[in-house]
Amino acid sequence: MKQTTPSAGEFAGRRIVVTGGSRGLGGEVVRRLLANGARVAACARTSESLDSLRRSLGVGDELFTQPLDVTDPELLERFVESAAAVFDGLDGVVACAGGARGGSITEATAEDWALTWALNAGHFARLTASATPLLRASGGGSIVVVSSISGWKPGPQAQYGASKAAQLHMVSSLARELGPYGIRVNAVSPGSMLIPGKRWDRMRQQAPDEYQRFTAEFPGRELVTPEEVADVIAFLLSEQARGVTGVNLPVDRGQNAPTPQGY
Question: Does the active-site annotation cover 104?
């Protein structure tokens, strides 16, 4: 079978920022990049989660970490600048942090909408804006945002899907805007990921019948894993994807509806 993921050492010398990088998909991305020789700067909400990541990896100066809230533009920009100062430059960015708050359209408050937007579209915009001059100084680079199939497959809640759809539009626009500087911009859109201890894993253990009904949304009856999504993110960051920009690449095992509630 033809190899589609970077070989060991392919990212040697590369300097990459990952937001939301302490656990789940973000933690897997950090592991994958470090294993392939990159120097990685990761941020997350708490220092405890970042300390746990460092202990689990057993790494040293090749990992730079900083706790922060990505919805704070000043802190986010300062983190990117600090990472570039520590690593003497920047070659890639992964916007992995995200989330949602609030319920249905009649339940969600204006604050819920604003926070969800800030977590997804706003964070991606500020991360890209702060990283762009640094990537240009390095001769170009790759930006990857973790969006979602909810960005075009409708399901609850609307504020989450709308913010993810905004990310996908931004990718198309930014790929054209930043292309002349040698900067590629792409999106990876995971389906429902089976992450230990998270929503779908809890459903599998606590409500197995409901979980089995949900798997009918997947042709192969299996949810996608963080490792599978991280493989694709690594590909888009690598030189193997040097001809790829402005793309939204779903990694969802062919998932239909994005939630058990359907469309």
Answer: no
pLDDT tens per residue, range 136-177: 999 999 999 999 999 999 888 999 999 999 999 999 999 999
Q: In the annotation, is 147 catalytic?
A: yes
pLDDT digit string, tens, across residues 68-108: 999 999 999 999 999 999 999 999 999 999 999 999 999 99
**What's the domain range around 241?**
15-191+237-247
In a domain? residue 207: no
Instruction: Judge whether 197 lies within some domain.
Output: no
Q: Assess if residue 5 is contained within a domain.
A: no
**Prediction pTM value:** 0.93
Domains identified in the chain, total number? 1
**Residue of 148, 150, 163, 189 marked catalytic:** 148
Per DSSP, the residues of 80-148 read: HHHHHHHHTS--EEEE--------STTT--HHHHHHHHIIIIIHHHHHHHHHHHHHHHTT-EEEEEE--
Interval 186-208: pLDDT, tens: 999 999 999 988 889 999 999 99
Q: Which of 153, 164, 192, 238 is catalytic?
A: 164
Q: Is 164 a catalytic residue?
A: yes
Which one from 160, 163, 189, 192 is the annotated catalytic residue? 160
